[in-house]
Amino acid sequence: MDTQQITAPPCAQPAVSGVIHRNVRHTAGFTVIGNHLAQHRGLSLVAVGLAVHIQSLPAGAKVGIKRLAERFPESETRIAAALRELEAAGYLHRSRVRLADGRIVTRTVSYNQPGADTPVARPTPPRAAPSAAKPTPHEPAAPMPTPTPQPAAVLVPPPTARTAAPPPLPQPQAPTPELQHTAAVLLADLRRQAPQLVLSEADISALAPGIVTWLERDARPDTIRHALTADLPVPLKHPAKLLRHRITTLLPPPLPGAHELKAARPGVIVIPLQNCDRCDRAFRSRHPGHCRDCRTDLPTAA
Protein backbone atom coordinates (compact mmCIF):
# COMPACT_ATOMS: atom_id res chain seq x y z
CA MET A 1 0.00 0.00 0.00
CA ASP A 2 1.43 3.31 -1.04
CA THR A 3 2.34 5.85 1.65
CA GLN A 4 0.33 9.07 1.46
CA GLN A 5 2.52 12.10 0.79
CA ILE A 6 1.79 15.02 3.13
CA THR A 7 2.85 18.43 1.82
CA ALA A 8 3.07 21.59 3.89
CA PRO A 9 0.88 24.54 2.82
CA PRO A 10 2.72 27.26 0.93
CA CYS A 11 4.03 30.20 2.97
CA ALA A 12 2.01 33.35 2.75
CA GLN A 13 3.60 35.85 0.39
CA PRO A 14 4.09 39.36 1.74
CA ALA A 15 1.89 42.06 0.32
CA VAL A 16 3.51 43.98 -2.50
CA SER A 17 1.05 46.90 -2.76
CA GLY A 18 2.10 48.63 0.48
CA VAL A 19 5.32 49.53 2.23
CA ILE A 20 7.63 46.78 3.46
CA HIS A 21 9.83 47.69 6.43
CA ARG A 22 13.34 46.28 6.71
CA ASN A 23 14.45 47.86 9.97
CA VAL A 24 17.86 47.73 11.62
CA ARG A 25 18.16 48.59 15.29
CA HIS A 26 20.12 51.80 15.83
CA THR A 27 22.67 51.84 18.60
CA ALA A 28 24.12 55.35 18.10
CA GLY A 29 23.42 58.53 16.19
CA PHE A 30 19.61 58.43 16.16
CA THR A 31 16.69 60.64 17.19
CA VAL A 32 13.36 59.47 18.63
CA ILE A 33 10.45 61.03 16.72
CA GLY A 34 6.84 60.57 17.79
CA ASN A 35 4.22 59.37 15.33
CA HIS A 36 2.15 62.41 16.25
CA LEU A 37 4.73 64.40 14.27
CA ALA A 38 5.72 61.92 11.58
CA GLN A 39 2.03 61.23 10.73
CA HIS A 40 0.64 64.70 11.48
CA ARG A 41 -2.28 65.41 9.13
CA GLY A 42 -2.27 69.17 9.59
CA LEU A 43 1.38 69.88 8.73
CA SER A 44 2.96 70.07 5.31
CA LEU A 45 5.70 67.66 4.34
CA VAL A 46 8.24 70.51 4.52
CA ALA A 47 7.15 71.35 8.07
CA VAL A 48 7.37 67.70 9.21
CA GLY A 49 10.85 67.30 7.72
CA LEU A 50 11.99 70.59 9.19
CA ALA A 51 10.75 69.60 12.65
CA VAL A 52 12.60 66.27 12.43
CA HIS A 53 15.79 68.09 11.38
CA ILE A 54 15.54 70.60 14.24
CA GLN A 55 14.91 67.87 16.83
CA SER A 56 18.01 66.03 15.62
CA LEU A 57 20.30 69.05 16.14
CA PRO A 58 22.34 69.57 19.31
CA ALA A 59 21.49 72.34 21.75
CA GLY A 60 22.76 75.73 20.61
CA ALA A 61 22.62 74.95 16.88
CA LYS A 62 21.58 77.81 14.60
CA VAL A 63 18.09 77.35 13.13
CA GLY A 64 17.49 80.74 11.53
CA ILE A 65 15.70 81.02 8.20
CA LYS A 66 18.85 81.97 6.30
CA ARG A 67 20.88 79.16 7.89
CA LEU A 68 18.17 76.59 7.01
CA ALA A 69 17.92 77.95 3.45
CA GLU A 70 21.66 77.38 3.05
CA ARG A 71 21.27 73.80 4.33
CA PHE A 72 18.23 72.77 2.24
CA PRO A 73 17.13 73.47 -1.36
CA GLU A 74 13.84 75.05 -0.26
CA SER A 75 13.55 78.84 -0.50
CA GLU A 76 13.46 81.19 2.48
CA THR A 77 9.74 81.78 1.85
CA ARG A 78 8.87 78.07 2.13
CA ILE A 79 11.07 77.60 5.18
CA ALA A 80 9.51 80.62 6.91
CA ALA A 81 6.03 79.25 6.18
CA ALA A 82 7.01 75.83 7.57
CA LEU A 83 8.35 77.42 10.77
CA ARG A 84 5.05 79.26 11.21
CA GLU A 85 3.22 75.91 10.81
CA LEU A 86 5.35 74.35 13.55
CA GLU A 87 4.74 77.33 15.84
CA ALA A 88 0.98 77.06 15.31
CA ALA A 89 1.09 73.30 16.04
CA GLY A 90 3.16 73.80 19.22
CA TYR A 91 6.40 72.18 18.06
CA LEU A 92 8.33 75.48 18.06
CA HIS A 93 8.33 78.70 20.04
CA ARG A 94 10.35 81.70 18.88
CA SER A 95 10.85 84.91 20.83
CA ARG A 96 13.07 87.97 20.58
CA VAL A 97 15.21 88.52 23.67
CA ARG A 98 17.64 91.27 24.66
CA LEU A 99 20.85 90.09 26.28
CA ALA A 100 22.69 91.90 29.04
CA ASP A 101 25.14 93.40 26.53
CA GLY A 102 22.30 94.99 24.55
CA ARG A 103 22.21 92.52 21.66
CA ILE A 104 18.81 91.27 20.45
CA VAL A 105 18.69 87.62 19.42
CA THR A 106 16.01 85.11 18.46
CA ARG A 107 15.51 82.30 20.99
CA THR A 108 13.99 79.10 19.53
CA VAL A 109 12.59 76.33 21.74
CA SER A 110 11.83 72.95 20.11
CA TYR A 111 9.19 70.62 21.63
CA ASN A 112 9.17 66.94 20.71
CA GLN A 113 5.78 66.59 22.44
CA PRO A 114 3.60 69.73 22.28
CA GLY A 115 1.65 70.40 25.45
CA ALA A 116 3.79 68.21 27.72
CA ASP A 117 5.75 69.71 30.60
CA THR A 118 9.37 68.86 29.90
CA PRO A 119 12.15 69.73 32.39
CA VAL A 120 15.11 71.70 31.17
CA ALA A 121 17.89 69.37 30.09
CA ARG A 122 20.98 69.54 32.25
CA PRO A 123 24.51 68.52 31.26
CA THR A 124 25.22 64.83 31.78
CA PRO A 125 28.41 64.03 33.73
CA PRO A 126 31.02 61.98 31.86
CA ARG A 127 30.72 58.24 32.22
CA ALA A 128 33.43 56.33 34.08
CA ALA A 129 35.67 54.02 32.11
CA PRO A 130 34.74 50.29 32.21
CA SER A 131 37.92 49.45 34.12
CA ALA A 132 37.29 52.01 36.87
CA ALA A 133 36.04 50.66 40.17
CA LYS A 134 32.44 51.42 41.02
CA PRO A 135 31.91 53.51 44.13
CA THR A 136 30.72 51.69 47.20
CA PRO A 137 27.34 52.65 48.71
CA HIS A 138 29.20 54.59 51.43
CA GLU A 139 31.18 56.70 48.98
CA PRO A 140 29.55 60.01 48.04
CA ALA A 141 28.53 60.35 44.43
CA ALA A 142 30.32 62.85 42.23
CA PRO A 143 28.57 66.23 42.35
CA MET A 144 26.69 67.40 39.29
CA PRO A 145 28.50 70.18 37.44
CA THR A 146 27.00 73.56 38.14
CA PRO A 147 25.61 75.07 34.92
CA THR A 148 27.10 78.39 33.88
CA PRO A 149 24.60 81.19 34.55
CA GLN A 150 23.29 82.70 31.35
CA PRO A 151 22.94 86.46 30.87
CA ALA A 152 19.60 87.84 31.90
CA ALA A 153 17.26 88.07 28.93
CA VAL A 154 14.40 90.49 28.39
CA LEU A 155 11.59 89.52 26.08
CA VAL A 156 11.25 91.81 23.08
CA PRO A 157 8.11 91.78 20.90
CA PRO A 158 8.76 90.32 17.45
CA PRO A 159 9.06 92.82 14.60
CA THR A 160 5.89 93.51 12.73
CA ALA A 161 5.70 92.16 9.20
CA ARG A 162 5.58 94.62 6.36
CA THR A 163 2.00 94.80 5.12
CA ALA A 164 2.38 97.65 2.62
CA ALA A 165 2.48 96.47 -0.98
CA PRO A 166 5.55 97.41 -3.06
CA PRO A 167 5.13 100.45 -5.35
CA PRO A 168 3.84 99.64 -8.83
CA LEU A 169 6.21 99.36 -11.77
CA PRO A 170 6.39 102.59 -13.83
CA GLN A 171 4.26 102.49 -16.97
CA PRO A 172 5.23 104.34 -20.18
CA GLN A 173 3.03 106.95 -21.84
CA ALA A 174 3.49 105.80 -25.46
CA PRO A 175 5.18 102.38 -25.62
CA THR A 176 6.23 102.02 -29.27
CA PRO A 177 7.45 98.66 -30.65
CA GLU A 178 10.95 100.13 -31.05
CA LEU A 179 11.15 101.15 -27.38
CA GLN A 180 9.77 97.79 -26.23
CA HIS A 181 12.34 95.92 -28.31
CA THR A 182 15.16 98.10 -26.96
CA ALA A 183 14.00 97.51 -23.38
CA ALA A 184 13.80 93.74 -23.85
CA VAL A 185 17.27 93.59 -25.42
CA LEU A 186 18.72 95.72 -22.60
CA LEU A 187 17.25 93.43 -19.92
CA ALA A 188 18.37 90.24 -21.65
CA ASP A 189 21.90 91.63 -22.07
CA LEU A 190 22.36 92.42 -18.35
CA ARG A 191 23.83 88.98 -17.65
CA ARG A 192 26.86 89.82 -19.79
CA GLN A 193 27.87 92.50 -17.30
CA ALA A 194 26.48 90.75 -14.20
CA PRO A 195 26.20 86.95 -14.61
CA GLN A 196 23.87 86.68 -11.62
CA LEU A 197 21.20 88.77 -13.41
CA VAL A 198 19.75 85.87 -15.40
CA LEU A 199 16.12 86.64 -16.26
CA SER A 200 13.43 84.43 -17.74
CA GLU A 201 11.32 85.50 -20.71
CA ALA A 202 8.41 86.11 -18.34
CA ASP A 203 10.58 88.37 -16.16
CA ILE A 204 11.73 90.37 -19.20
CA SER A 205 8.15 90.85 -20.40
CA ALA A 206 7.08 92.01 -16.94
CA LEU A 207 9.99 94.45 -16.45
CA ALA A 208 10.13 95.87 -20.00
CA PRO A 209 7.45 98.59 -19.42
CA GLY A 210 9.56 100.07 -16.63
CA ILE A 211 12.63 100.26 -18.89
CA VAL A 212 10.50 101.88 -21.63
CA THR A 213 9.55 104.57 -19.09
CA TRP A 214 13.26 105.26 -18.49
CA LEU A 215 13.86 105.52 -22.25
CA GLU A 216 10.92 107.90 -22.62
CA ARG A 217 12.58 110.16 -20.08
CA ASP A 218 15.72 110.34 -22.27
CA ALA A 219 17.79 108.00 -20.09
CA ARG A 220 20.69 106.52 -22.06
CA PRO A 221 21.04 102.70 -22.17
CA ASP A 222 24.46 102.94 -20.48
CA THR A 223 22.91 104.95 -17.65
CA ILE A 224 20.13 102.38 -17.19
CA ARG A 225 22.59 99.48 -17.29
CA HIS A 226 24.80 101.10 -14.64
CA ALA A 227 21.84 101.84 -12.34
CA LEU A 228 20.63 98.23 -12.52
CA THR A 229 23.99 96.45 -12.10
CA ALA A 230 25.94 98.62 -9.63
CA ASP A 231 26.61 97.29 -6.10
CA LEU A 232 24.68 94.02 -6.40
CA PRO A 233 24.16 92.09 -3.12
CA VAL A 234 26.00 88.81 -2.63
CA PRO A 235 24.43 86.31 -2.86
CA LEU A 236 21.63 87.49 -5.16
CA LYS A 237 18.71 85.07 -4.85
CA HIS A 238 15.90 87.01 -6.59
CA PRO A 239 17.30 89.06 -9.52
CA ALA A 240 13.87 89.94 -10.95
CA LYS A 241 12.67 91.39 -7.62
CA LEU A 242 15.86 93.43 -7.23
CA LEU A 243 15.57 94.86 -10.75
CA ARG A 244 11.90 95.71 -10.22
CA HIS A 245 12.83 97.60 -7.03
CA ARG A 246 15.63 99.55 -8.74
CA ILE A 247 13.57 100.35 -11.83
CA THR A 248 10.83 101.77 -9.60
CA THR A 249 12.83 103.63 -6.94
CA LEU A 250 15.65 105.00 -9.15
CA LEU A 251 13.39 106.27 -11.94
CA PRO A 252 14.69 109.73 -12.98
CA PRO A 253 12.26 112.63 -13.53
CA PRO A 254 11.48 113.82 -17.08
CA LEU A 255 13.95 116.27 -18.58
CA PRO A 256 12.63 119.87 -18.38
CA GLY A 257 11.72 121.63 -21.61
CA ALA A 258 13.27 124.85 -22.95
CA HIS A 259 10.37 127.00 -21.74
CA GLU A 260 10.64 125.52 -18.24
CA LEU A 261 14.36 126.29 -18.08
CA LYS A 262 13.74 129.84 -19.28
CA ALA A 263 11.11 130.39 -16.59
CA ALA A 264 13.41 128.98 -13.93
CA ARG A 265 16.31 131.33 -14.77
CA PRO A 266 16.13 134.59 -12.77
CA GLY A 267 16.02 137.75 -14.93
CA VAL A 268 18.28 140.83 -14.58
CA ILE A 269 16.95 143.25 -11.98
CA VAL A 270 17.01 146.82 -13.36
CA ILE A 271 16.75 149.73 -10.90
CA PRO A 272 14.66 152.50 -12.48
CA LEU A 273 15.82 156.08 -13.06
CA GLN A 274 14.49 158.88 -10.87
CA ASN A 275 14.76 162.68 -11.26
CA CYS A 276 16.12 164.57 -8.28
CA ASP A 277 13.46 166.77 -6.68
CA ARG A 278 16.05 169.51 -6.07
CA CYS A 279 18.42 169.63 -9.05
CA ASP A 280 16.44 167.51 -11.54
CA ARG A 281 19.48 165.28 -12.07
CA ALA A 282 18.76 161.61 -13.05
CA PHE A 283 19.81 158.91 -10.60
CA ARG A 284 18.90 155.24 -10.07
CA SER A 285 16.74 154.40 -7.10
CA ARG A 286 13.66 152.38 -6.33
CA HIS A 287 12.05 155.40 -4.73
CA PRO A 288 11.85 159.08 -5.80
CA GLY A 289 13.78 161.66 -3.80
CA HIS A 290 17.11 163.47 -3.96
CA CYS A 291 20.32 162.50 -5.73
CA ARG A 292 23.51 161.83 -3.80
CA ASP A 293 24.81 165.40 -4.10
CA CYS A 294 21.58 166.91 -2.85
CA ARG A 295 21.03 164.60 0.07
CA THR A 296 21.89 166.11 3.42
CA ASP A 297 21.63 162.90 5.46
CA LEU A 298 24.85 161.41 4.05
CA PRO A 299 28.06 161.78 6.12
CA THR A 300 30.64 164.19 4.75
CA ALA A 301 34.37 163.73 4.71
CA ALA A 302 36.21 165.53 7.48
- Which structural class matches the secondary elements? mainly alpha
Question: What strand line-up does the widest sheet have?
Answer: 2-1-3
Distance between the termini: 170 Å
Mean pLDDT metric: 80
How are helices and strands ordered from N to C? HHHHEEEHHHHHHEE
- Beta-strand content estimate: 5-15%
CATH topology of the domain at 29-112: Arc Repressor Mutant, subunit A
Number of strands: 5
Our Rg estimate from Cα atoms comes to 40 Å
**Helix run count:** 10
In short:
The protein is mostly helical.
Describe it.
The mean pLDDT is 80. The protein is mainly alpha-helical and 302 residues long. The strands form 2 sheets. Strands 2-1-3 form a 3-stranded antiparallel β-sheet. Helix 5 packs across helix 7 (201-216) and helix 7 (201-216) packs parallel to helix 9 (239-249). The chain has helices spanning 35-38, 45-56, 65-71, 76-89, 177-188, 190-193, 201-216, 221-229, 239-249, 258-264; strands spanning 92-98, 104-110, 154-156, 273-275, 282-284. Among the domains are: 29-112, Winged helix-like DNA-binding domain superfamily/Winged helix DNA-binding domain (Arc Repressor Mutant, subunit A); 177-249, no CATH class.
